[in-house]
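Structure in, sequence out. Go:
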């Protein structure tokens, strides 16, 4: 290791950490990524897949800002599918089956090409901060497990499931961050010493089986899309061949085996006390919670093009090994299955996210940023979305610049971070499109229009991407203008496109100038979405305007909520804990009611008048 000091130091080479390091280094910050193992950088701890509903949009947003995840996915994924195709295109979400060897290798290759980035293989045991108390402390650097120190103006912690990690498989408990990797034992204490509060969450994974022990003829085949859509706006075509996945189901016999062994399940014996993700429950939880269901779907997914493991998506479990083997072999197509990795659960420390600002900097310690699973989220995409924001803001903090906040009205990433900072959480957070109130605007197809100009302004979008974006935007504008002016049977084409089954191809006979646009399937598809949803999008734009008005109504940070007359006790407590930056954010704090917002707004305007009049007195006196 050569660096003893840097601008930005990132702890952890998971999906949040690599995105943070990529962003900070590309913004020109001297960046050091400290992680336990170089080879584990970008490893997919659980499901070998990127994207999905709500998550695919995040990957597109990361890419639009100039991030890494979309590029790595396009280069290495082995099956691409557009989800939600039966719903309107506004809810389509790209998802791809990842190759669990190729994905991390490509992420490592990309990072190794960055001039400003040094990777250090080590554990971080403690954080170094200036002396003092509370909000007046600032980050100075980190202490490594071998006693070395690296000084840094900004530190991003992206420690995933490793803080105080404890793995469970049946009655067996093993300290560790994930299978085969040691936990980070000391860093939690250092965070506590800095005054942060920690909580504990849990997640789990399924058993993996050997492909040559599965009978695929007894399962349903699930091919990828005929024309795979890339994640990155820079990728023109996915050229690698795609693989198949399969579908099978649990059955009453599987359920009975699990039911008979529930007292040996760490989730039900009291061995695991922390909360897991409700939307992604273990198979034992599904059977307890939905006793009437006769079967649950299982996606059987290869972990790579030439992998020796199949991932059984849908049967995450921490039951003992003998029970796992018995229930897996009761599943159709898996009667002779050989298990090559047992399912397990992991409990880990996280920092309840009311303690961070929407820039992802902690409220207590200037220059300390948190991103990914440590903020209570679950999932690679959620982690990466926070990683890019933390990387941008860590670089800006190191350079003495203000932080950047993504709004709920401009990105899913903004929705997620606002939810985390404002609403707090009681279980691991994952993104769904239903969390975004402006989801007709936050579509996967227009992520570049929403975010690439911001990425350019920040310096993260370099020349080639910007050129590509400007060309696309100009062509899209030209096509929309033609659709608005050209007519068929006396009606503007844009109106005809509102019919659900109209794909516009027939317009070309009458208007051959459209042919060159129609030849670009992606561009044509984008124009169709804009035309079909024009009325809804316009309505959403109006609601965004109203939302922005509240969002731009600032709430001073030093306000004494206890002193606000008529504010309910619960609202006082919750608002004091979160310290919202705007009336909009205050309205989303859990436990705060619309009447509280009215009370707060009245108080703020009275306060502004008082401050205003005392200022004019000062002015007059001066
Ligand atoms: C068993 C299991 C099951 C999961 N199940 C699901 C699921 O069902 N659905 C889902 O969406 N997500 C699941 N996940 C979560 C998913 O893996 C994470 O959300 C995602 O990887 C988080 O990314 P991250 O960057 O925050 O951390 P991680 O990807 O966990 O990476 C953290 C990195 O930081 C390094 N590190 C940690 N502490 C230190 C330190 N002190 N010093 C140096 N390096 C350090 C680690 O070595 C590691 O490389 C699961 C994870 C596990 C382990």
């Amino acid at each position: 290791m050569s660096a003893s000091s840097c601008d930005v130091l990132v702890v952890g080479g998971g999906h949040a950490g690599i995105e943070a390091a990529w962003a900070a280094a590309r913004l020109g910050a001297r960046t050091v990524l400290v992680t336990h193992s170089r080879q584990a950088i970008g490893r997919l701890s659980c499901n070998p897949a990127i994207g999905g509903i709500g998550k695919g949009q995040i990957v597109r947003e990361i890419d639009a800002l100039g991030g890494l995840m979309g590029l790595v996915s396009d280069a290495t994924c082995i099956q691409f599918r557009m989800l939600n195709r039966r719903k309107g295109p506004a809810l389509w979400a790209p998802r791809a089956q990842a190759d669990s060897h190729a994905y991390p290798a490509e992420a490592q290759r990309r990072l190794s090409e960055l001039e400003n980035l040094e990777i250090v293989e080590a554990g971080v045991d403690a954080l170094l901060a200036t002396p003092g108390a509370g909000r007046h402390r600032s980050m100075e650097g980190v202490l490594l497990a071998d006693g070395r120190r690296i000084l840094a103006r900004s530190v991003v912690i992206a420690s995933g499931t490793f803080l105080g990690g404890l793995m469970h498989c049946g009655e067996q408990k093993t300290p560790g961050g994930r299978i085969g990797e040691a936990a980070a034992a000391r860093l939690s204490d250092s965070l506590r010493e800095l005054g942060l509060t920690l909580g504990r969450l849990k997640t789990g994974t399924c058993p993996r089986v050997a492909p040559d022990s599965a009978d695929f003829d007894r399962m349903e085949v699930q091919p990828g899309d005929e024309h795979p859509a890339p994640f990155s706006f820079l990728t023109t075509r996915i050229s690698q061949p795609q693989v198949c996945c399969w579908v099978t189901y649990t059955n009453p016999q599987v359920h009975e085996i699990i039911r008979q062994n529930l007292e040996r399940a760490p989730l039900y014996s009291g061995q695991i006390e922390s909360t897991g993700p409700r939307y992604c429950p273990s198979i034992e939880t599904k059977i307890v919670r939905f006793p009437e269901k006769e079967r649950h779907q299982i996606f059987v997914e290869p972990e790579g093009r030439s992998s020796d493991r199949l991932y059984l998506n849908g049967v995450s479990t921490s039951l003992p090994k003998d029970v796992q083997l018995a229930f897996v072999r009761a599943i159709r197509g898996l009667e002779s299955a050989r298990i090559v990795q047992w399912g397990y659960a992991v409990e880990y420390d996280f920092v309840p996210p009311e303690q961070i600002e929407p820039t992802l900097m902690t409220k207590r310690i200037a220059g300390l940023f948190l991103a990914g699973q440590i903020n209570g989220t679950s999932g690679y995409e959620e982690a990466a979305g926070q990683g890019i924001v933390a990387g941008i803001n860590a670089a800006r903090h190191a350079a003495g610049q203000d932080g950047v906040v993504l709004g709920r009205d401009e990105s899913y990433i903004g929705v997620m971070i606002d939810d985390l900072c404002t609403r707090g959480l009681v279980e691991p957070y994952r993104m769904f499109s239903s969390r975004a109130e402006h989801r007709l605007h936050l579509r996967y197809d227009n992520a570049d229009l929403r975010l690439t100009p911001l990425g350019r302004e920040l310096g993260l979008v370099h020349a080639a991407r910007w050129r590509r974006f400007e060309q696309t935007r100009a062509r899209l504008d030209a096509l929309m203008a033609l659709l608005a002016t050209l007519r068929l049977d006396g009606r503007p084409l844009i109106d005809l496109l509102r019919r659900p089954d109209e794909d516009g191809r027939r317009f070309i006979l009458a208007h051959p100038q459209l042919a060159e646009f129609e030849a670009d399937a992606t561009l044509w598809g984008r124009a169709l979405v804009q035309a079909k949803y024009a009325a809804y999008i316009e309505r959403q734009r109006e609601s965004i305007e109203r939302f922005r008005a509240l969002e731009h109504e600032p709430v001073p940070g030093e306000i004494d909520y206890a002193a606000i007359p008529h504010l309910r006790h619960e609202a006082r407590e919750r608002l004091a804990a979160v310290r919202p930056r705007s009336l909009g954010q205050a309205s989303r704090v859990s436990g705060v009611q619309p009447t509280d917002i009215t009370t707060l707004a009245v108080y703020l305007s009275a306060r502004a008048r008082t401050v205003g009049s005392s200022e004019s007195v000062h002015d007059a006196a001066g």
